[in-house]
Amino acid sequence: MKNIFLAFFWVFLLGCGSSSSQPAPEAPILNESPFVSRTVILRPTWPSDLAGISSQLELKASLKGEIAQSKGVGSIGPVVGSYESEAYQFDFAEVPKELADTGEVTIDIFFPNAALSPDCQKVATLFQKLTFTEGKTIFVAPPDSFDLSHDCDDNGLSNIQEWNLSQIPQPIVNEPTPPPDIDADGIIDELDNCPLVANAAQFDADGDKSGDLCDCKPMDPQIYPSNKDEPDDAPFDGNCDGVDGDKARAVFVDATNGRDSNDGSLEMPLQTISAAVLKATEQKKDIYLATGRYDLKNVSFSKGLRFYGGYAPQNFETRDGISEWVHSESDAVLNLFNIEGAFLFDRIDFIGIKPENDLVLGSRTVVIEKSVVHITHSQINGSSLGNNSTALAVLGGSEVVVDKSQLDGGEGLNISRGILIDSSDRVTIKDNVIRCGAGRFCVGVEIQGASPLVQKNTIDATSRTVFDPHVVTVKALHFENALSLSLLDNILATGNADNRYPLYCAGLEPVDPEKISSNVLLASTNDGSNVWAVGCRGGFDLNIDDGLTFGLKTAQNNSAYFGALETLLEDPLYSEMGGPR
């Protein structure tokens, strides 16, 4: 309880003598008394907590101080003030003049109750050094503040509570608080399988520990209100909140029906990614996106976030689509550099629509550097304009997982590339379909100075250019100085080029060729001749039955396939490898 200040106003009664037109002759003073009298009148303004009992309060005043040239201490009082009409009057008689001029007035305020200790009876004490005197009036300053929340006897009740309890302090009975039962069905919340709906019988038909009356699927043990529901591969509402996921920890965005002036709830979604990023970062929530196209031109990231796309507009009830992201002012739709925290992008289509800003690097739709990112069930498409295009570039110091997605190198007239991994070892590329694009130099996956895990992907380096019928070179997988590369269970396909290389090595040779295993290499040509691989030392590998050659070591258990990729997808061998991808 905060301090309450008591303002005191002093009204002074001054003795008045009669006057006449002619002054009376001054009588001689004989044996003048060394004593004086003093009267003090106090008119307090009580705080609300004391207003109801102010008439019951008792005030005592006293004067004390030095007398006789500081040779002793004298005091007068206490004097009890009589209470009349909100005023207290104190009459002091035979006050030594020395004390009246140099002393101190003390006023103690009590709540008289014999059941309380003296300390608990005291309300406040005023101390004031006498500053000057005039007639019978003493002038003092307002009192110090005092705290009515003080518990003088440590019994759990403040002083003001004790004074107001019929003037008798009540004992505290520490009775145990009954456990909460919000729905009042006789089952405490801790044991109630439906704590917000009365269900004394506790029926639970599917045994999911959620009562039938509050379970939206009372016969399905996988769906119940307290279930932890994340947007997933087989989207369904696992916690009865109306969406695939948890609407309580999500910011909703609808490019068509939303407004950035909304609060971002399911009923009032936002419209833009930029508004959603601000709110989700502040509230530490995920972002759920309806299908539609979103422009990232004003988006800035400070921390990692999780994006789930593909929800049905307006109601978000189903999630079987994909949300499109573009950038109207940059060739990079998403550019993450040294961002704190981890990102997740699920069911997002990144579409490059701008030509390259840098003629050397070319356009790169998604660029990740020194950041942690997981991309799943998504699409990344290189730019549809310009000379050089790359769908995904993973640069130094990144930790990236790309799975169950589709990547296309785009329409670069000269060079197109599905994925570029440069100086990042902590990368996993798994269960994807990766196409090199339409460039005259067309590469599915290019690895420079890194050792990622590339597993169970279909990497199609069949250039689809229509500008030049003689595409110069296509490579499904090009790696250079990839010392610990893991290449497992992939389809590496090429076609429609003068030079076709499913596997192309340069620089230092892998130190663990056994990590290059169970891949199918396809190099369909018009003339029937095939070059399956190029070794790190430049040699051509025309027969991989004895293993892919890497210096003095070979990579075993890889196979060649004669024919087109479309034919392979229908071949029983493809199913044996775990297809489709």
Describe the protein in words.
With 581 residues, the protein is mostly beta strands. Among the domains are: 140 residues, Immunoglobulin-like (Sandwich); 211 residues. It contains 7 helices and 41 strands. It has a 10-stranded parallel β-sheet with strand order 11-12-14-17-20-23-26-29-32-35, with helices on one face. It has a 10-stranded parallel β-sheet with strand order 13-15-18-21-24-27-30-33-36-41, with no helix packed on it. A 9-stranded mixed β-sheet has the order 16-19-22-25-28-31-34-37-38, with no helix packed on it. The longest helix has 11 residues. The N terminus is likely disordered.
- The radius of gyration computed from the alpha-carbon positions, rounded to a whole number of angstroms, is 45 Å
Helix content: under 10%
- Main sheet: strand order: 11-12-14-17-20-23-26-29-32-35
User: pLDDT under 50 segments (min length 5)?
Assistant: 1-22, 68-73, 166-170
Number of strands: 41
Q: Kindly report the average pLDDT value.
A: 81
Oligomer: single chain
Beta-strand content = 35-45%
Shape: elongated
Structural class: mainly beta
Biggest beta sheet attributes: 10 strands, parallel
The number of helices is 7
Head-to-tail CA distance between termini: 69 Å
Task: Describe the structure using short key phrases.
single chain; 581 residues; mainly beta; Immunoglobulin-like; 10-stranded parallel beta sheet; 7 helices; 41 strands; 35% strand
